[in-house]
Inverse folding.
């Protein structure tokens, strides 16, 4: 039966080489269109609940009201009800239809094991809306690893990830088209190191895209790439997420960019004075994100940039007064064009780079 699985695995793999893999099956990369490389459509972020600061107003209850909007924007992780994106599939469906109308084609859905991936819902959303959805394989940060995950060897973890891509995940036949977001903390834990090595081994077998959630230190992204590279991963097919809250110094950013991964600015739409996961970090504004993109374009990295919103809480949905999945297409692209980024470069960032990253080698 091992032989049969190996034979069927190589058949499946031969079908996806040169293609992208959506929740509805393999697809010609030319069909992707404008792509958000880091979003969530259904997930729970309960793992990252932060109690409100002493003396703060109490958490709002759902249904949220207009008067709660500012509180939620400033304290999104201090309201449990705000962390259950999986309760809002109807609103997400409406948003995906609006995303298509705004010119969007594809969404890479980064929910992995640990934050309640729901592949049947993703498949239904893709069918209902016509948006291409690519699902993520693998594991989120250590705090969400189960005892069973922690006990797995690198080989076992590799098998699990490979199977999620080739055969389907969570007991379904719905296949993931990317590994990640693979979660890491800072410092990187032992269990996360094993998952990173397994990610690299799986990528070496599959020729597939990888996307990483780094811990909150400017040193984290390079350390992650070192682990992946040592284990045989393909850095040129790897996205480093959340750079907007991770590397601020321009010289450090250039040093990191030279390592050759894709560089992702993916918190567009996030406004927050005090970032509770790392109070030393000043969360940038969208204007500062655009400035960072313009800087990297000027420095010659336009082929390596990808962008997204990483929606993972309810308050960021249009239903709750948030910016929604179309914010980049409707508001950020026009701003980019006024800040020295050409239409051709915008098209690279939104279409060509995601296409090259997502295509199986
Ligand atoms: C879902 C997820 O991991 N989002 C990233 C949030 S963070 O504050 O940038 O780490």
């Amino acid at each position: 039966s091992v032989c049969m699985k190996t034979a069927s695995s190589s058949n499946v793999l031969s079908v996806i080489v040169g293609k992208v893999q959506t929740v509805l099956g393999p697809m010609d990369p030319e069909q992707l269109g404008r792509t958000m490389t880091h979003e969530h459509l259904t997930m729970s972020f309960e793992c990252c609940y932060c109690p409100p600061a002493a003396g703060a107003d109490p958490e709002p209850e759902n249904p949220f009201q207009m008067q709660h909007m500012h509180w939620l924007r400033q304290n999104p992780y201090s309201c449990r009800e705000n962390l259950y994106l999986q309760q809002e599939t109807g609103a997400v469906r409406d948003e995906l239809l609006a995303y298509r109308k705004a010119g969007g084609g594809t969404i890479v859905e980064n929910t992995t094991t640990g934050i309640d991936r729901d592949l049947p819902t993703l498949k239904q959303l893709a069918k209902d809306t016509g948006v291409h959805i690519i699902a993520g394989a693998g594991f989120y940060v250590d705090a969400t690893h189960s005892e069973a995950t922690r006990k797995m060897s690198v080989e076992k973890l590799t098998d699990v990830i490979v199977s999620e891509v080739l055969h389907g995940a969570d007991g379904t036949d719905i296949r993931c088209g990317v590994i990640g977001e693979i979660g890491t903390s800072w410092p990187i834990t032992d269990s996360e190191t094993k998952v990173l090595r397994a990610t690299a081994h799986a990528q070496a077998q599959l020729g597939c895209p990888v996307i990483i959630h780094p811990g909150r230190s400017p040193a984290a992204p390079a350390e992650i790439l070192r682990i992946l590279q040592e284990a045989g991963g393909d850095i040129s097919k790897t996205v480093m997420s959340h750079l907007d809250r991770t590397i601020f110094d321009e010289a450090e950013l250039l040093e990191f960019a030279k390592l050759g991964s894709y560089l992702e600015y993916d918190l567009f739409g996030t406004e927050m004075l005090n970032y509770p996961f790392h109070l030393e970090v000043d969360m940038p504004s969208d204007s500062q994100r655009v400035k960072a993109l313009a800087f990297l374009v000027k420095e010659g990295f336009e082929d390596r940039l990808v962008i997204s919103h990483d929606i993972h809480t309810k308050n960021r949905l249009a239903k709750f007064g948030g910016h929604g999945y179309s914010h980049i297409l409707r508001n950020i692209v026009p701003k980019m064009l006024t800040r020295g980024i050409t239409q051709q470069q915008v098209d690279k960032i939104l279409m060509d780079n995601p296409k090259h990253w997502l295509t199986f080698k």
About this structure: Strands lie at 20-22, 25-27, 34-39, 104-109, 132-137, 178-183, 210-213, 238-240, 262-265, 305-307.
